[in-house]
C-alpha cells in the first residue's frame, strides 16, 4: 500500500520533472522556429526534448517510481548542463533558471527515493 508521503513525493517529483521537461522542450522548439530554414541541429535537439515529456507522462500513467526517478535524474542533469551553457553564453536567465530547476528536480528526486526506501520498496 502506498503511503500518503510516498504519493505526495511521487506527485511533487512528477510535477517538477514534467515542468522541467516542458521548459526544455519549449526552448528547443523556439530554436527550431527561430531559424529559417530550420537548422538540422535545432531539429535534432527538439526531437529529443519533445520525446522526454511523453516518457514522463508514461511513467506517471504507469505510476512507476523507478521510471520517474530515472527520468527525473536525466532532467536534473539536462537542466544542470543547460545552466553551464547559460554561463558560457553570459546570460543570467539561461543560467539561474536551469540551475533552479535542476536543484528542485534533485530535491524532489531525493525525497521520492527517501520515501521509497523508508517504505522498504526495492530501488
TrEMBL record:
Superkingdom of the organism of origin: Bacteria
Keywords attached to this entry: Membrane, Transmembrane, Transmembrane helix
TM stretches of this protein: 9-35, 41-60, 67-89, 95-113
Stated name of the protein: Membrane protein
Organism of origin: Tunturiibacter empetritectus
